[in-house]
Amino acid sequence: MSSLITRPTPGPTAADAPAPGRPIAFTAALAGLAAPVIGLAVCMSVALTGWFLADAGAHGNTTDALGVGAVAWLVGHGAHVVLSGTPIGMTPLAVTMILVLTAFRAGRWAARSSETASSEARTSGAASGAAPEAGADRVLAGAVASFTGAYVVVAVVVGVLASRSAADPSLGRAVLGALLVAGLSGGSGLAVGSGRLGAWLDRAPAWAGDVLTGALAGLLWLLGAGAVLVAVSLLVSFNEAANVLSGLHLSAGDAVSYLVVMALFAPNAVLLGVSYLAGPGFAFGTGTTVSSTAVSLGVVPAFPLLAALPDDGPTPGWLRLLIAVPALAAAIGVGTVLRGRPPVAHDLAALRGAAAGFLAGVLTTLLVSLAGGPLGDGRMADVGAPVAEVLVFTTGLMSVGGLLGAVLVNAWRRRGEREWTPESRPESRPEPVGAGEPAATPPPPADGDEPTVEVLR
User: What CA–CA distances, in Å, run from 125 to 157, 199, 449?
Assistant: First the structure.
């Protein structure tokens, strides 16, 4: 005999409920410790691999290789080192890019792995009587401070330990670079992961978003042009670079390590190429200049990447046309962004385009300023681009380019709307119901029936 009584299903208990996430300040501190450790592990792994490739560990020991990786990590934050009495101050920007990306991903993970920003904002706002938006911003600021503090602690410890090596990295510049990487990149990751960046963009006016995205698009186009310039120059001078590399009489492992070092400085070469396209060019030694109008170099070190530098003397006249590349990059970048926006008045479009180009020039100058640095004392103490001239040239050229690109795209969009709007074309307007058909006549009255007369009251 089966029982027909239905047993009640037990409801969810407190143990089955999802556990609340950890506070974002706590996860940000964990991420602030993890991000530098991950970057440090990558640098040490590359140094250890290069040590084994060079002589299979015949000279030195593992601790020396790990110390080289730690010094490279500090140099990626902008620290200057002294190698055998020679000061080296050029930052390998490829290492810096890895550190920036690691800090951003760690910050985003910290925000997504913690309590939601809205719940913490409600708690903070209720405690202080402030609005939820202000509470969320306060919570995010505390998370950024936790992330940055933990990151800088690791940088100080690594700097103190590495200062005992022969490289002697500068601790002050390393700490400053760690502050910038953690605060800007890690803070951006926290803002993205918590959703605060999206909220800020939603509250921002439309023109601000157009200016920012247009500036970033123009900057990317100009960086792409600089990369193409460096790649073409290396391709043209490939034989010279191969001769320089073969003249060093390196083993297979040493050659691989040499190529890795060149790859670490590839972003520096791209940014110096951007300065060449903008007009001021750059210097590779005291009293030297490399620009589209003249080249004066003299003797350069035997480094394969330097084979891409042009020869001394006057340059062909057509190279002067390269100065239009920054303006063209800004025009394409701004035009691409505004193509998906609704058209506005021509004066407003011109202002947005010029502002985007100006901001792109400022961002370009900031990046170019990071590409240089001393590669020794004496003649090689001056390597890099003239920052003030780059600022004047890039902001002027890219402002004009952004203005022209915005006006042209805006005019094309307005003309397209006038020509293709359905209401503006008579043949596309819907005809009224029954149009073009003869009016229906009422049927004749049946025999014996009188027509019905409607009385309007």
Answer: 37, 17, 83
Same domain, 186 and 98: yes
**Is residue 319 a part of any domain in this protein?**
yes
How far apart, in whole angstroms, are the C-alpha atoms of residue 169 and residue 159?
Answer: 7
Signed CA dihedral, 272, 278, 283, 288: sign only = positive
Which residue range(s) make up the domain with 254? 204-422
Beta bridge pairs of residue 296: 289
**Token pair 């681009």: residue:** 385
The residue with tokens 């110096």 is: 272
| Within a domain: 49 | yes
**pLDDT for 36-60, tens place per residue?**
999 999 999 988 888 887 766 566 6
Q: How far apart are CA 351 and CA 399, in angstroms?
A: 10
Q: 395-424 pLDDT, tens per residue?
A: 999 999 999 999 999 888 888 666 545 554
Count of all residues that appear for the chain in the document:
457
Quick one: which of 171, 151, 142 has its CA closest to 103?
151
CB 390 within 8 A of CB 291: no
| Residue 80 Ramachandran class (φ > 0 left, ψ -120 to 50 alpha, else beta) | beta
CB 274 within 8 A of CB 222: yes
CA 186/CA 150 separation, integer angstroms: 11
368-397 pLDDT, tens digit per residue, is: 999 998 888 878 888 999 999 999 999 999
Judgement on whether residues 41 and 102 belong to the same structural domain of the protein: yes
Q: Is 1 domain-assigned?
A: no
Q: What is the pLDDT of residue 196?
A: 86
Same domain, 165 and 260: no
Residue 364 within any structural domain of the chain: yes
Same domain, 162 and 234: no
Are 150 and 245 in the same domain?
no
